[in-house]
Amino acid sequence: MPAAGFAVPVAPGGVEFEARITPYVIITCIMAASGGLMFGYDVGISGGVTSMNDFLEKFFPVVYRKKIESQDNSPYCKYDNQGLQLFTSSLYLAGLIATFFASYTTRVWGRKPTMLIAGIFFLMGVVLNAAAQDLAMLIVGRILLGCGVGFANQAVPLFLSEVAPTRIRGGLNILFQLNVTIGILFANLVNYGTEKITPWGWRLSLGLAAIPALLLTVGSIFIVETPNSLIERGLLEEGKVVLKKIRGTDNVDPEFNELLEASRIAASVKHPFRNLLKRRNRPQLIITMCLQFFQQFTGINAIMFYAPVLFQTLGFKNDASLYSSVITGAVNVLSTVVSIYSVDKVGRRVLLLEAGVQMFVSQVIIAILLATGMKNDEEISKGIAIVIVLMVCTFVSAFAWSWGPLGWLIPSETFPLETRSAGQSVTVCVNLLFTFVIAQAFLSMLCHFKYGIFLFFAGWVLIMSTFVLFLLPETKNVPIEEMIEKVWRKHWLWKNYVTDADLIDDEDGDAYGNQENGKANGKAYHNSQL
Ligand code: BGC
Question: Any residues with CB less than 8 A from the CB of 286 and at least 6 apart, and which?
């Protein structure tokens, strides 16, 4: 599960059990969250590396030649190369495939071994990348990193949501996203420093990913398995011991009983994926898939992956382009913090709609400046360059307090127990799929559309904002067990999918909560898992 937390947000009305925020919990969460750092580092590092001359000369000589002889080409096409895009995108494709295996190991083997597997994949990938002699080594390294992402992002958010006491679970959800943005910023800073080290600075950039990778690997050896996972696998006594340890109290019976009940209900769901396709789950399914698709079509990863390349395309010098990426990376981190504070106050819809306007305006201004300021393939003037960086920052900040975290938070708070786990897998897969598409296509799109690429994304922003306006109901402060009554049944369109006939249990015997059951399930659900 990439790039965001999946902790269960605690709605008012959720049950509180006795739990201290023990140092043990804090350390455990820090360890586990290094999975987020690792993912962010991978997202942020490739753009800077692919803009470095030593790296290009060694692995992509064609691109390198095009770059230094750029006067013969349209500046927009300097980097248009399938191999170069594959270097970035292969990670996400591998992650997508790995997610399917990871959802099995997470359930059957547990969260802890899954994180260890992720750490080992990451370490192998880092070694191959830092030592790469040819393109094959580079790509295989990226694929291994991608496998790490698939495993880590499945297990880590789940782990965090299960270990954290209920009252800080909602915050932890976005905290995972915050870690991703910190990873991206860290990568941008590293690139800024290593660019000056020739001819092997890029090796250092790729190699420093070993820091979060080691943290995750070593961390996963020392942390405990979550009580939920132990109970799910029938290890009841061990589950209770761990629960006492992480909650810092012997009074864990109420929570333990809830976990037992939750695991019984989860076990009775025989066909989670088939369940997901039932009519009554249509609203959540459509919303989740659209949110993830739209999140990528804001164009954010065009910036996150390719900002240094993009800035160079606009005529910035190497140094200036990496420096500008550091600025956008920092804006990304700070604006994510804004989201943590405002999401439960102003609500999801306000954030998404405001961000829609801000992103649309920023992108249109960028397109106009490029169209008028980059005539005859000359370099753009300094003044225009500054305004462009500013507009990229306003775009990134809007994304970071809206679509970034909310693309993950909303699916995690709308799926009912019966489809929770399957729903999350879909969330992750749709995310990785379209992340891959953008990574693979952006530089070619830039070459063909030129400044129009920003109008293309602006068009999508318009479409997604319209979607939010008419089809996305507000879920702020709605307990999960009351979603049907308070959200779906009140919506002009979605109410047609949750009629009494839709809610009746069927021959599968899959557990489904009517309103009464829903309440009981809802409680267990807060305290269980995806
Ligand atoms: C997205 C990533 C993106 C990141 C940027 C996440 O929510 O899923 O694709 O790179 O935000 O901060």
Answer: 471
Residue located nearest, by CA, to atom 10 of ligand 1: 301
Mutate to test the pocket of ligand 1, among 38, 42, 175, 301 (most ligand atoms within 8 A of CB): 301
Structure-token pair, residue 447: 């070459």
Q: Is 43 in the pocket of ligand 1 (CB under 6 A)?
A: yes
User: Is the separation of the CB atoms in 261 and 15 below 8 Å?
Assistant: no
> What pLDDT is stored for residue 310 in this prediction?
78
510 pLDDT band, cuts 50/70/90, is very low
- 396 ligand 1 Cβ < 6 A: no
Residue 294, C-beta contacts closer than 8 angstroms, at least 6 positions apart? 403, 407, 460, 463, 464, 467
Tell me, in angstroms, the distance from the centre of ligand 1 to residue 40's CA.
8
Nearest Cα to 239, choosing from 229, 247, 249? 229
pLDDT at 127 over 90: yes
Residue 268 is predicted with a pLDDT of 77
Distance 304 CA to ligand 1 centre (A): 8
CB 213 within 8 A of CB 119: yes
178 lines ligand 1 (CB under 6 A): no
In whole angstroms, give the CA distance from residue 477 to residue 426. Answer: 24
